[in-house]
Specification:
- The model has no long low-confidence stretch (mean pLDDT 97).
- This protein has a seven-stranded parallel beta sheet, with helices on both faces. The protein has a three-stranded mixed beta sheet with strand order 7-8-10.
- The radius of gyration is 19 Å and the shape is globular.
- The protein contains twelve helices and ten strands.
- With 297 residues, the chain is α/β, with parallel strands linked by helices.
- Helix 1 crosses helix 7, helix 4 runs parallel beside helix 5 and helix 8 packs parallel to helix 12.
- The structure holds NADP nicotinamide-adenine-dinucleotide phosphate.
- The site of NADP nicotinamide-adenine-dinucleotide phosphate has 31 residues, from helix 1, helix 4, strand 5 and helix 6.
Length: 297
């Protein structure tokens, strides 16, 4: 039985789908407040549901009983309930999960982390680094993933391909290894399915590093329309970072500043040990633009 924490999230749901497709038994951690459609989707995959919140150590200890491995994708950055914060969930909650796993004798711990940029430190990356230190004595794999296409190249974060408008953080010239969350899911499950990447940090990006302006060009080519581009200068992002009042605001400002600095990853070495056919930005653009092209016919 594999426990998935964050199972109702974008990545966690995909991890559950893939584990079930591989015939693995999955226990999915859900909350009383989780979106019912997302919970039903897990139910229809035949996942066992365990109700629990990372802020509640007894519930987490119960969820860890009888499992052989766990994958934690949970984070409070986008999906929050009252009382959720970087400190209570991403730091204390994940540390409690590591302790619960250790007490239950679970050694295999796959943790979804984020990239490190030594020049920009903020509460979310500090929490991620603390959890990585806390699981170092377990049979851990930490997945340090780059920017998800489905999040950062989406209308929710100002990349509005529906209306041909793109918001870019920084000059737009620094390459980023945009990655599909579906591909990240493959790196989350491979350590369990193929017994690889034990006690390892995996740096996970897409097939090519592209600057945000190159990404805009791809979307223009695929949609056949010019995009209106709004750039937020790095100085403004730095100002926003320095004046942020709470840890969530500081973390969002930090992530944007880190984006402005770029994040290129050479995936060749990792793909030799874990072969995954990585989704390109062009493929992603074709997929998300398809319904609008059809509607225009
Ligand atoms: N977005 C990116 O570009 C990016 C890049 C690199 C790494 N990452 C990392 O990837 C991971 C997955 O991201 P995602 O997009 O799948 O996130 P997401 O869709 O926002 O999902 C977050 C999940 O965490 C759960 N959660 C939040 N607070 C919780 C709590 N107190 N107790 C139990 N569960 C809780 C949520 O449950 P509810 O549904 O009940 O709220 C949800 O299942 C995160 O760790 C993130 O830091 C993201």
């Amino acid at each position: 039985m594999i426990l998935v924490v964050g199972a109702t999230g974008l990545l966690g749901t995909r991890v559950c789908e893939r584990l079930r497709a591989e015939g693995r038994s999955v226990r999915a951690l859900v909350r009383r407040t989780s979106n019912p459609d997302k919970v039903n989707a897990l139910r229809s995959l035949d996942c066992e549901l365990a109700t629990g919140d990372l802020k509640d150590p007894p519930q987490i200890r119960a969820a860890c009983q009888g499992i052989s491995a766990l994958i934690s994708t949970a984070s409070s950055t986008l999906s929050r309930q009252p009382g959720d914060s970087i400190e209570s969930v991403d730091l204390q909650g994940q540390l409690a999960l590591a302790n619960a796993a250790r007490s239950a004798g679970v050694r295999r711990f796959i943790y979804v982390s984020f990239r490190d940029d030594r020049t920009v430190q903020y509460p979310l990356t500090q929490a991620k680094r603390s959890v990585e230190r806390a699981i170092a004595d377990l049979d851990f794999t930490s997945i340090q993933a780059s920017y998800f296409m489905q999040v950062w190249l989406s209308p929710a974060l100002g990349f509005d391909y529906v209306h041909g408008r793109a918001r870019i953080y920084g000059s737009g010239s620094k390459p980023i290894s945009w990655v599909s969350h579906r591909d990240v899911a493959e790196f989350c499950i491979a350590p369990i399915l193929r017994s690889v990447a034990s006690r390892s940090v995996l740096e996970v990006g897409g097939p090519e590093a592209l600057s945000p302006l190159e990404v805009v060009r791809i979307f223009e080519e695929e949609s056949g329309r010019r995009f209106e581009v709004e750039t937020i200068p790095e100085a403004k992002l730095r100002e926003q970072f320095n004046s942020a009042n709470d840890s969530l605001e500081k973390s969002f400002a930090g992530i944007m500043l880190q984006y402005a600095h770029g994040d290129a990853i050479d995936m060749r070495g990792l793909l030799e040990s874990i072969p995954v056919r990585l989704t390109s930005v062009r493929e992603y653009a074709r997929t998300v633009l398809e319904p609008y092209k059809r509607a225009a016919l």
